[in-house]
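COMPLEX REQUEST
Ligand: magnesium ion
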Amino acid sequence: MQPWHNPGRLSVGASRFASGSFHTEELFIVPDAKALIKSEKRTLVWRKAIGDIEATVIKMYRHRGIVNWHRERLFNFRVQREYEALRVLESAGVPCSVPLLWGCGSAAEHGCFEILVTREIPGVTNLKEALRAGTAPAVPDDLLMLFDAVRQMHQCGIYHGALLPKNILVTLGPQRRPTFYLIDLIKAIHFPNNVQRTVMAHYDLLSLVHGLTNLLPGINCDALLSRYGLGQTAIRELRDHLVWYRSTRYLRNRLAFQFKIWALVTRWHKRLGLGTREKVV
Ligand SMILES: Nc1ncnc2c1ncn2[C@@H]1O[C@H](COP(=O)(O)OP(=O)(O)OP(=O)(O)O)[C@@H](O)[C@H]1O
Ligand SMILES: [Mg+2]
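STATUS: Structure written out below.
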């Protein structure tokens, strides 16, 4: 596939739609402004009913350029990694956005792009907005379920890599307890083993607790971390780290590089029957 020769084409990497149920070209036509959730130079997110039955959310990364396109083709597209990580979560019963399709292509108005289609979760808002607006669960008791979901995610070997309140969706209802959904796994890394109690889990938790304490100053996260499965010593270590933790671009890139190497080494160890090598904190 050579996207620069095929303006207006989409090549589907994986799809769970019945073949012929819609034209793939429909997918990268952004509908009216009302459907847009996010509109930035490089990223577009919008709602779309596919085949008029499936309510979906489409995320597009665009203007990637030929060099990036080849690099991603070699190392897997970002949307492919997100699609596969979400499939792992979905099959383990972890609440998340259900992946339906990923693909890449080019179009005159977008240049080279990648898209990920997920099933729309009705009646949700992201946790950051909900906490800011005061409509989300602000007491630790209501957030316990979120830490159950994070534990389950780590138990099936997924490191999220951007576990921030804005990447968690929450259903809001006056009567019922909130349900949390993990989304935006573009930075996720899939390990062949449980990563709970590893340095990967430590950084995911650090990022989440840092985000929550910024939005809810004074919140006591001990109950949440204990629900996740941390003992008193690990909770104390995480709290100490939180005092000086800053999520810089350098740190994020360094961790991503380091964890990708560990995932690779762990996979090879497993393949060669040497057992798994876990980086435990
Ligand atoms: N499956 C879904 N169901 C409902 N809404 C969704 C779904 N997936 C994404 N959204 C909406 O789209 C927004 C952006 O999604 P996502 O975080 O995946 O993209 P992003 O480009 O990383 O955006 P941001 O930089 O704001 O995190 C979410 O905050 C949410 O409002
Ligand atoms: Mg996001």
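REMARKS: The chain has eight helices and eleven strands. The chain has two domains: 3-119, 124-271.
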